[in-house]
Amino acid sequence: MTWKLAEAKNRLTEVVNLALTEGPQTITRRSDTVVVISAARYAELTGRKPDFKDFLFQGESFEGLDLTRDQSPMRDVEL
């Protein structure tokens, strides 16, 4: 549901109750818009994001991948 700011201020308890039971509530002020959501929904949306190490460990296994350096001599380059 969309609320105008003045109405949402006067009926804040109702706005909060609806956010908890029915879902996000939108509040507008001129050209600005905000959304009121429950803490549970916020945690669901923002949840813990894996750091880079966790991201790599969740990917494919490096087992069997040859990571040895090529020991052949480098090519000659004229500068």
Describe, in plain words, how this protein is organized in 3D.
The protein has four helices and three strands, in the order βααββαα. The chain is of the alpha+beta class. It is elongated, with a radius of gyration of 27 Å.
E-strand count? 3
Q: Spell the H/E element sequence.
A: EHHEEHH
Q: How are the strands ordered across the major sheet?
A: 1-2-3
**Bulk shape:** elongated
Q: Strand content of the residues, in percent? A: 15-25%
Number of DSSP helical runs: 4
Mean pLDDT: 90
CATH architecture classification name: 3-Layer(aba) Sandwich
Please give the share of residues in helix: 25-40%
> Whole-Å distance between the termini?
69 Å
Q: Which blocks of ≥5 consecutive residues have pLDDT under 50? A: none
Report on the biggest sheet. Answer: 3 strands, mixed
Structural class: alpha+beta
Name the features.
79 residues, alpha+beta, YefM-like fold, 4 helices
Helices and strands, with pairings:
Elements: E1 2-4, H1 5-10, H2 12-21, E2 25-29, E3 32-36, H3 39-46, H4 52-58
Parallel strand pairs: 1-2
Antiparallel strand pairs: 2-3
